[in-house]
């Protein structure tokens, strides 16, 4: 405390005259002194005076992190704004945003708030928008829109919002002109997503449809060519249906489902559809929706004829397909709502589920009131079959994801209280708490009231509900305390056959996936659980690893999963196989593909395992490698709530693989569509037409708090856009000719010509 | 009268007039003219749902210039095919066998792998199966003892069980009868049934079946087992000292492949096995003398069994020790050089035919390649060539063929169809496994209750020279031609 003492007593000359080390030392002492004085309730004015000087000194000398650290210690981040200028705001904000994930609860939002204010001050609106989306503040989002008159910039904002999956209704403040407003709204509604995706597909030359056999690559398997029997296996055909749907997702053409629409001359029509059995036909019809993903106009036209089928399963599948086609794409006419809503109250259970789930997928995250009104009636009806009830709840959860809607929460809680013991024992019931949790996805403390109510539930589901709510409410926050709490649940030895440890393991992954450091720690913790945990814990570990590294095949996780895929416990191995598909989703990773081929010959006799292997193979080649399931985007900063909601729902369904995915609810796998996004960088010109420019793509480097202007990517290669981006990769423009309107080059990026650019020649 | 634009699929029909005094059905008929979609198949999205045929325009509030979306196609509605596909999962278990592609495994009932592997190898002989199936319970003739009869019945039942099941079968009945008939298989050590020599089991079972199936009246061919497996040998016994020479005939069920220092291949071993020396009293010399015995095959069976003499009695350790030497064996075996002159004569013509057939096939194939059509492949006249023993007709058709105008002739060329291997260091320990070629041409390894597919290359790797499974008994199937 020496230097601080004499500084306060002594002369008040220039603080920097004694050198950097002195200032740094002083800052350390101030933070200690500050804590002490605050505890003793002593005045801090003199200290703050010094802080002012030190911050000013740091900011002038490229030591933004030190300045931010000091201000955080003395709880006065607002001071930063005064000292920041156009040269150092970027570094300061970068440090603020990345340190926010390690701050306790109110402080993190505060830090981000400051970052937002700074970005706004320096008119870096695209960066400000990213912060606004991160803290999920619609007010800020509108503010970003209204702060600029630049229509092109607004269009770029709309692209970012569309990728995030935020259902935003633009009002007249945002764009006064009707045409402009419509153009912006169209972008937010993802109307052109299909077009952009197909442009990418044509550019990388993968338009040719692929059949499931192209994916299985049986000829590469040693010796054990699976018995080429002339008979159809219903399960294998169903697997082929899914593989076909995943691989050709969004391409609008395939070799099983769409071929017949062109040669619809009777006899052979619908032949593949009818090679599936009962509810398999539902999945087959719905797969059409997946193939025509995002292409509402021609998609609905092709599905239409199935709606008139006299087979209830086909109709149900077609309804689900309508929902899938409209996933993430909104249209003024609301075709999905108009088509589906009347089927919700039909007699047949299968049709009802198809329509309900279709609505959930089409309107996820939209807070659509019509859906709520109609489905609340079902939720309130005690005579409704359990499966219809569960899917209604899931749909409400998806549509109102992260809304904290009290009314819906009440209706799910009532359903959980009212239903009998036998119904609570049904495997599907485990999805009711998930539906409830989705309402609070990522909303942290807001869940507490509901969590309190859940303590009064029947003891069969009380713990399950409690853990699920906790894990979903803190999903994507990186909250270490909650991770510890969940680890605590996993340390207990249960003897009453409780099942809440599965969701607890998943919860660890969901919470820890927020940032790299926590992610690595979680992978290590899961390794421990694998060694010491009991069977019901071990069964969830592969799935947890799957979500942690989704679409990001880390070698160590791949090895662990490969080992677990040969586990003696059937549930563990099946979960590991599915997870291999999840971590490789949309990467075409050759190593995983090879592993899965070997697994397909290893498990050639076990129908259930083989089905999982096929699904995983389909996932690895998702959209022929153009799609990703990663819910994070914008430099792994923003988390799309609808994408996460979709993943969570499927993972919870996978916790009981045998009765849900291998049972008759395999169409739940289509919920993954919520997380599907093209992993592309598509540059467009001022008329939003694709524009090919050279870009450098390389491994992203963490430059937070580093001195100077370090390179942000390493080991780069130069491509011309459109280009595919893998997990952990970053792109930068390799030409000065254009200026991007957003700092993060991902998805659709609008380029504006650089007025200062001079051609060398 | 408001005008609206209607979007249908990727088309847009601007300026469609709505007559608000008429029900929407009229509007739909207007659209029918434009799109060809029948009104009942049209779905038109307006605020709050689909446009109903009897709705009131005034309540819908359609504005001038509004964009409506219409859905619907004139496509044919998808109908379910009248006959749905049959799914494997729906079939009763016995029919699933066909789909799996091989028959069931056998449970190990405690050191019974010697028996399981033997049974699996013999089970692959369709002629034997059909002979057994015509064996009736009452068919026992007097000269046959009861246990032989029971053993035959048990074999028959077990073989049919194997054909009917997908899941492994427990050969309880068979085992208990086998132990009654041949008490040596019921030896116990420390209260546990001991491992036995598979060759012994094979030989005994073969002997019993040859007895029972011959005596049974139902099988028309006399001595079915003899015709299938029996090898007639003619031996010349020669004494170098006295110059005496005699010949004798014998019938065996397996050729022996003797393994010595300079045997590297089955051929050499067989040659070795057909020559032996014996000491007996020479009538001309009046004392015992060394005679050399040289055997030749006089009659060939449908299935040729070759036993590798891998075990010898080691007095010091008091057990059957194993020779680990690597002895290669071919997938295609020609025994012509072991045949007697008489038999060679007989084989000449069929061998010639076989060669011609094969050449013809090759010739045809090249022609096919030239013409570039693949379909003709199927039209090649079926010869019993090496590649198509997959589709080889079973015993019954063989017999039919024999009775009808053509006669099936042996050629002296054999294809490997089953291998019984042993892993371990002595006959009474280690593990026996059967490797059987299926009718589809695929190889299946029958490791007790766990059948698994194998590659053909791996089968020839079972030739020994290490601690891996090594061939102990090989069964070859005759390649035949119809003349």
UniProtKB/TrEMBL annotation, chain A:
One of its GO terms (biological process) is regulation of protein catabolic process. The keyword Ubl conjugation applies. Residues 2-220 form the RPN1 N-terminal domain. It comes from the Eukaryota. GO terms for cellular component: nucleus; proteasome regulatory particle, base subcomplex; proteasome storage granule. GO terms for molecular function: enzyme regulator activity. Acts as a regulatory subunit of the 26 proteasome which is involved in the ATP-dependent degradation of ubiquitinated proteins. Component of the 19S regulatory particle (RP/PA700) base subcomplex of the 26S proteasome. The 26S proteasome is composed of a core protease (CP), known as the 20S proteasome, capped at one or both ends by the 19S regulatory particle (RP/PA700). The RP/PA700 complex is composed of at least 17 different subunits in two subcomplexes, the base and the lid, which form the portions proximal and distal to the 20S proteolytic core, respectively. This is 26S proteasome non-ATPase regulatory subunit 2 homolog. It comes from Phoenix dactylifera (Date palm). The lineage of its organism: Eukaryota, Viridiplantae, Streptophyta, Embryophyta, Tracheophyta.
From TrEMBL, chain B:
It is an enzyme of class 3 (hydrolase). Residues 366-377 have a biased composition (Basic and acidic residues). Residues 2-71 form the Ubiquitin-like domain. GO terms for biological process: proteasome-mediated ubiquitin-dependent protein catabolic process; protein deubiquitination; regulation of proteasomal protein catabolic process. Residues 360-403 are annotated as: Disordered. Pfam families: ubiquitin, UCH. Keywords: Hydrolase, Protease, Thiol protease, Ubl conjugation pathway. Residues 104-479 form the USP domain. It catalyses: Thiol-dependent hydrolysis of ester, thioester, amide, peptide and isopeptide bonds formed by the C-terminal Gly of ubiquitin (a 76-residue protein attached to proteins as an intracellular targeting signal). Its EC number is 3.4.19.12. One of its GO terms (molecular function) is proteasome binding. PROSITE patterns: UBIQUITIN_1 (PS00299), UBIQUITIN_2 (PS50053), USP_1 (PS00972), USP_2 (PS00973), USP_3 (PS50235). SUPFAM superfamilies: Cysteine proteinases (SSF54001), Ubiquitin-like (SSF54236). Recognizes and hydrolyzes the peptide bond at the C-terminal Gly of ubiquitin. Involved in the processing of poly-ubiquitin precursors as well as that of ubiquitinated proteins. Interacts with calmodulin (CaM). Belongs to the peptidase C19 family. This is Ubiquitin carboxyl-terminal hydrolase. The gene is LOC103712935.
